[in-house]
Amino acid sequence: MAMARGGAIVLILLVLTFAMLAAWSSNRRTDYFPQDLNHAVSACEVAPGVFEQQVVLEEGVDRWLSAELADVGEPSLYRRPASLPRSVRLTWLGTFRHPVVVRVDTLQNGQQQLTAKKGASGAGFGPAGDPVEARKMVRVLTPAEATGLRIVVDRARLFSAPPSGCRRRIDEGRWVLEGADPQAGYRYRSVQSPKEDERALGLYLLGLAGWDNF
Known about the structure:
The chain is built from 4 helices and 9 strands. It is of the alpha+beta class. Strand 1 and strand 2 form a beta hairpin. The model is unreliable at 8-27 and 122-132 (pLDDT under 50).
């Protein structure tokens, strides 16, 4: 009888393990970005006054970024229903730092909801060398915060500029700005050295989470 119970427990654990693996695998296959970005190019300033054509989203970066978003349970803004209200997301990735994701979704009632996640992948250490545990924050923005976000989004031309992806150094942090809007559609921008308005948008989103000094 004891052996039978033990076998049943093992079977249940195996079923749960397979279910978890299936869910993880399904999330990993999420289509986060349009494949067109793997072939599109943008003019990038690699030095003062020096420009070169770079692929907007290289396939390796696509896999890396998709894996990070999947690991923290982020939805795909690219594949979300087109009728949903506007969403904006910042993903900050550093070579030896934990990933940070800040997303703001406009709700059906017009309010804007912040979802911020700080993962623990990569080296998993903060600036002082201390281990970093995954963290999550969800809250509704105040009207003043929502207005401020709209201003910095407009100044950064997130929904009016074409998609772009510029890099300078392999070991430099990457700022990925995404947006999804029922009129403007899906937007993508990835930079290592953000311009003033891009940095202002990224820092504003981080500030909403209280993580602008991460």
